[in-house]
Specification:
binds manganese (II) ion, eight-stranded mixed beta sheet, binds adenosine-5'-diphosphate, Ubiquitin-like (UB roll), 13 strands, 2 domains
Length: about 375
């Protein structure tokens, strides 16, 4: 098919022969990091003399920033098994640091792990859990939605969500292989489903505690792009890849604290939602990769979204900004869902904003200033 890349036509069976060659004590270690200028992912691999057992075994590395060539440091954060080069090889999620060892600051201020981690430390007694639902859309390398007719459109929406069948579930190989790859790697993937628009899919990561949410979701995104590369297609996290009567792609965030999970927790859930209602605009600014501009195309009030300009909350309401799932309302505890984050959000920024608004002490809140969200 013309919308599939050349490299996917290479003989993957031959590749298997080389992957099974013994490698002695050596270990291939792939460093993965977020390009803070564009929020896309980068990686490079090197050989270690023996298998690293803990994250402290991973030496720091460096790279030249694209464009400028400025040298940055890669500090290891967490280690996963490598589902592509297989055991004992590793994937290492890294934080990008300046030569001074401070977190790198990029033009678009997209390096949020460090600030997020500080907030998570402050609220760790609340044991904040998060689960995020990453939606994505498959495209050919030419940018055309995968499996869509060259001219015209597929049948209108209504038969694709959770669908089965060659005429409606486009690209299940990607979702299935990504799911397996995540499990092998050690990512807390919770499930997957076909979405409302053809060639749109979702996977869920979580529940994860604190900073782990961002770490696991970013690595899960890396695996997604890497699996797509094998199949010769592209996953876009654009929040509204197709204009018109087609669903956009979000990244709903589900949130709970130890208090919310206990009996009677609904009281704390309602308190958190009340606080969110007062900071709608600030949250919209951090819920996509471009300060709210991307979500303007998605949060229209149609296609299971709420309007970008107003906050709303409701039980079992998939048209609200924040939803209390039906089973939560019935049990009067567990968690709530914020449906506003776009597919291309930075989970570090989103979980950080959630903590600042809902969980920090009142006095902390007063000092809070989103403009200094560094
Ligand atoms: P839906 O599509 O109905 O909104 P999903 O099943 O796709 O829901 O996603 C539910 C999400 O809620 C998952 O990411 C899961 O990890 C998360 N989750 C479940 N329990 C909790 C909890 N106690 N706290 C936070 N997140 C949770
Ligand atoms: Mn879902
Ligand atoms: Mn969904
Ligand atoms: Mn959801």
């Amino acid at each position: 098919m013309s919308c599939v890349s050349e490299s996917s036509h290479l003989n993957k069976f031959l590749r298997q022969r080389y992957l099974s060659l013994p490698q002695g004590d050596f270990c291939q270690v792939t460093y993965v990091w977020i390009n803070g200028c564009s929020l896309d992912l980068c990686s490079k691999t090197r050989t270690m003399d023996s298998e690293p057992k803990v994250i402290a075994d991973i030496p720091e590395w460096d790279f030249g920033q694209r464009g400028s060539g400025t040298e940055m440091l890669l500090a290891s954060i967490c280690m996963f098994r490598d589902p592509f080069l297989l055991d004992p090889n590793k994937l290492i999620l890294c934080e990008v640091l300046k030569q001074t060892r401070e977190p790198a600051v990029f033009l678009l201020d997209l390096n949020h792990r460090n600030s997020c981690n500080k907030e998570m430390e402050k609220v760790k007694d609340l044991q904040p859990w998060f689960g995020m639902e990453q939606e994505y859309t498959l495209l050919g390398v030419d940018g055309h939605p995968y499996g869509w007719p060259r001219l015209g459109y597929p049948k209108k929406q209504g038969l694709y969500y959770c669908s089965v069948g060659a005429d409606r579930a486009f690209g299940r190989d990607i979702a299935d292989c990504h799911y397996k790859a995540c499990l092998y790697a050690g990512i807390k993937i919770g499930g997957t489903n076909a979405e409302a628009m053809p060639s749109q899919w979702e996977f869920q990561v979580g529940p994860c505690e604190g900073i782990e949410m961002g770490d696991h979701l970013w690595m899960a995104r890396f695996l997604l792009h890497r699996v797509c590369e094998d199949f010769g297609v592209v996953a876009t996290l654009d929040p509204k890849p197709m204009t018109g009567d087609w669903n956009g792609a979000g990244c709903h965030i589900n949130v709970s604290t130890v208090q919310m999970r206990e009996e009677g927790g609904i009281e704390y859930i309602e308190k958190a939602i009340e606080k969110l209602s007062k900071r709608h605009a600030e949250h919209i600014r951090v819920y996509d990769a471009h300060g709210g501009e991307d979500n303007k195309r998605r949060l229209t009030g149609h296609h299971e979204t709420a309007s970008i300009s107003n906050f709303s909350a409701g039980v079992a309401d998939r048209g609200a900004s924040v939803r209390i799932p039906l089973h939560v309302a019935q049990k009067k505890c567990v968690y709530f869902e914020d449906r506003r984050p776009a597919a291309n959000c930075d989970p570090y920024a989103v979980t950080c904003a959630m903590v600042r608004t809902c969980l920090l002490e009142e006095e902390e809140e007063l000092k809070w200033n989103f403009e200094n969200n560094k």
